[in-house]
Amino acid sequence: MLVNSKREEILDNDKLVNILIESKRISEKIIEEIKDSSVVEEQIQRNREIYKGIATRASILFFIVKDLSKIDYMYQFSL
User: Which pTM does this prediction carry?
Assistant: First the structure.
């Protein structure tokens, strides 16, 4: 009988019930935002793959131009 009376007291506690309802609402919102972030992450990954080749070529070009000064000192200032 003691267990039943404690259950009733917990369910009668409006503040506790409201907190639990709010927690459930927040957790559902978080789950939805996680799903949305997965979609955005996939879009970012696709875009990253598009620009990966360009970034590789640009970095090669950068280091080639940077090393031109090793060929002749003049290239350090003219570029």
Answer: 0.48
Say what angle helices 2-12 and 14-71 make with each other, to 10 degrees: 60
- Domain total in the chain: 1
- DSSP-based three-state secondary structure for 72: coil
pLDDT digits (tens, 9 = 90+) for 6-59: 556 777 788 888 999 999 999 999 999 999 999 999 999 999 999 999 999 999
* Spatial CB neighbours of 10, under 8 Å, sequence gap ≥ 6: 16
Residue 13 tokens read as: 């506690």
Per the structure block, which two tokens stand in for 63? 């280091």
Give yes or no for a contact between 57 and 50, defined as CB atoms under 8 angstroms apart. no
Its domain, for residue 59, covers 2-78
For 45-62, write each residue's pLDDT tens digit. 999 999 999 999 999 999
